[in-house]
Specification:
The protein is an alpha+beta fold. It has three helices and five strands, in the order ααβββββα.
């Protein structure tokens, strides 16, 4: 697994959306303080009392690139940092 700082930078910069492992993305969200609930293969992450959630699913062992982008936009919108 990449270090959390490198992983966070990869997500925030958007340079490697296709190369982020699903488990690494889950670990990052956990470390940032998100709470997870699972419904089938959907992992739904909520943060504190914010009105939006993040919904991610794996494709093999990788995260879906468009969902990495959604995570990035969420982190930027609510200024959530490592």
């Amino acid at each position: 697994m990449a270090t959390l700082e490198k992983l966070y930078l990869s997500v925030i910069t958007g340079m490697q959306d296709k190369n982020i492992k699903f488990r690494d993305l889950q670990k990052l969200l956990d470390v940032l303080g998100f709470e997870c609930r699972i419904k089938g293969d959907h992992f739904i992450y909520s943060y504190s009392n914010l009105p939006e959630n993040i919904n991610i699913q794996p494709i093999g062992n990788m995260a879906k690139p468009y969902q990495v982008k959604q995570v990035r936009l969420f982190l930027q919108k609510y200024q959530i940092q490592l």
